[in-house]
Amino acid sequence: MKRILGLLCFIVASSAFGQIKMTGVVKDSIGTPLELANVIAINKESNTLESYAITDANGKYIISLSKNGQYNIQISYIGLKSVDEVVETKEADITKDFQMLSDNALDAVELTYEMPVTIKGDTLIYNADSFKNGTERKLEDVLKKLPGVEINADGKIEVEGKVVNKLMVNGKDFFDGDSKLATKNIPSNAVDKVQVLRNYSEVGQLKGVQNNQDNVAINIKLKEGKENFWFGDVTAGGGVAPSPNDELYLVQPKLFYYSPKYSINVIGDLNNTGEVALTGRDIRNFGGGFRLPSNDSGTSINLGDNGLRGLTDLGDAQTIESKLGALNFSYAPTKSLDLSGFVIYNSNRLSTRLKSFFDYIDVEDDPSTPNINESQSVPPDERIDQTGKEATNQGLAKLSAKYQPNANNQLDYDVLARISSDSETQNEFSSVVGNTNEFNEAEPYSINQNLNYYYTLNETNIFAFEAQHLLKDEDPFYNALLPNDPTNNMAAPNERDAFDNTADALGFNRAQNGYNLNQERRIKSSQLDAKLDYYNILNSKSNINFTLGTILSTQKFNSNIFQFLDDGSLFDPVANLTNEEGDVLRNENDTEYNFSDVYLGVHYTLKTGKFTFTPGFSVHAYGNKNTQFGATYEDNFFRILPDFETRIQFKKSERLIFRYNMKNAFTDVTSLAEGLVLNNYNSIQYGEPDLQNSLSHNLNLSYFSFNLFNYTNVFATLNYNKNIDQIRSLTNFDNVIRTSSYFNSNFADESLSFIGRFQRTFGKLRASIGANYNYSKINQFIQGVRSVNESFSQTYRPELSTNFREAPNVTLRYQYSIRNNNQGDNDTQFITSAPSIEFDAYIWDALTFKTDYSYTNQSSDVSPSQSFQTWNASLAYRKDRDAKWEYEVRASNLLDIDSEVNNGSSNISVYSSETFVLPRFVTFRLTYTL
Fold first, then answer.
1. Higher-confidence residue: 372 or 735?
2. What's the whole-model pTM score?
3. In angstroms, what is the C-alpha Rg of the chain?
């Protein structure tokens, strides 16, 4: 690593020593400095772009040029005649000013090269070819090289620290709701421009009155010649790997068609190499571009997620078989009507293995209960070796229609349907419980519909109606087989089976040779979220907004715990477990939960100079009612929720925003249902029907600056959250099996977080550093004893990368994180150090070589240090940049490591784990480009 770093420094230094600086000021005809004028330098000998700059607020520019050369200096500014002059460099830096005259639109200089980066209002435009060096294959390879744009660990695009959820191609939606399908499939050679649309609004009528500061979209402009023709590529390949992955296969067709009237995108993926465009989690989180109308109302209600939430990340599997079929289309039959949609089918088959060690936290005895030894029931340390198989089949479909007959009317309708069939089988050996087999399956479906209508009455009055309805049906089933020796039921507690006491509390038949426990659940949810907005534009500096909205939801929850006996018969046990009040709990649930919120909001926006103020509040009338086994629990109340925002626009690309809001958060039906529920065999819960909402204060301060004069990109966000009456768990252990309930805590929970990044470009070198800080304080009760869990983590991510057009490019990253936890009397510290390097080279205009290597070391004060390495590489050949055929050899996990390690802590334990991963894969691939 030291040698590579030294080599990188030498290359950069050599490049820097061979250059001079040319600086100056660009002014108009009367001597006024021009901000955001474009300056480019073209090498006359090679006819290539040598350097570029954009002037700052004082009209100043600075560009880097090679010594002893001749350059065409071209300067452009909207509304003024372009400048084209020849400059000859020697050995010394140059100072030269330019003056621009009015444009007659007849003899303007035609620019030979486009600016790599330009700004037009809230739109940042990157010329993709200015950042390519020939090793790029997909859109993500281009985006990684753009200043201010990142691809995060989940493969999603981030701009200014915000995840981009909307990506378009030639202005048409591309699988609306997730950017991964675009970044990993759109060919890089088709990309002409990348347009980052800040302050993005899908409704032009509301752009001037709505706050869209958090909305960022990206539009990909295709190169000329890509319209009205199919383009894309088809990849096929195979290879060998250690058993059980003896034969590898890969088939990936990716085809695209765009015309002014319609577009079609087809993506297919069939492989067992672990390279998938979407994981099961991605599909479940695929929002389809839907946004709740009540998102800014101050009310948050959680409908829960009762699917198989524990599905494995694909990178944590030993074998993977995946299938993906996706179709996206758009069609404009008339100028006023746009139709679009997509269909996605995703299927994964995984086998997994995980080894874990849990050190449960200590609990001190409560001096107020001298007859109870709270620490006696704290579970012993536990080692688990777990193997499993997972199968997911998921379908997703969306249809959208936009009707806009004129500038004053717009009607939108969207429907998103999803269905899945998921199953999971786990074999688990616990040092405490013994051998256990678990089976989970679920076949949930949901239908989400969205209807919006926007009407502009005149220049000062705008109406907007938005409504969304969600219908969701979830049916998870759980089965577990646990060991049991029926002869030790009356033995001393430390001589019984680990599950015996829990089985007795649940009312199971303990005379069996094993416990076969089962649970059926059914959760049906329906929610209507609607609002009507009225905007009155008072003048050019201010407007007022009135909102009338409602949220109506209903959830029905049924569950039943039962046992299969050794002879195959079904047994319905009667529990004898009691709650905190001493009431006997049931092994079943029959709960209906109804929630309503009717609210009126008022917001006023005032712009004065650099400041924009938006104070507001909303008045809510809440209604809660849940009915369980003939008993009804009801709560109705009013609450005023204030919010406030101040935005300071220092420059066109620099701003500071402060936000405050108060939120009411409501739980889902599973936390209210008082019957017993099995999360799994060692985690049992029951709800509290009298639970109330939690109230939180939320403050946010964010800063953003993108300076194209010195190529500096900065963003920082500070968040503070304080929760009052937060819903917290009461946890009691019997051996390693815990039973949890819920209550409204009188103790406030707090969290403080900071995320920031500084990025600067120096010629062909780009340097950045990112930092994250997180502090949280959580109150919890274990064995009836209150403890305060405090956690503070800090992460630093420095990075250096080059962007040469001819020479090889290197990216060096280093991630260092420290996490300190205080759990009652337990103090732990975890340190992770992870240097990595990426190298890519385009050789002889034919060979593309890429490799990446990372080393991860984890240490703590409770376990020995552990580390693992990853190394991947690929070598591809194509005759030239425009060749149709490409041949590639790719190797993953070259060091053939069998597992990765992870240390951490939860609210009840400190853990270390070893996840077994895919072995070394070597594949040969053939790609044909249309």
1. 735
2. 0.86
3. 31
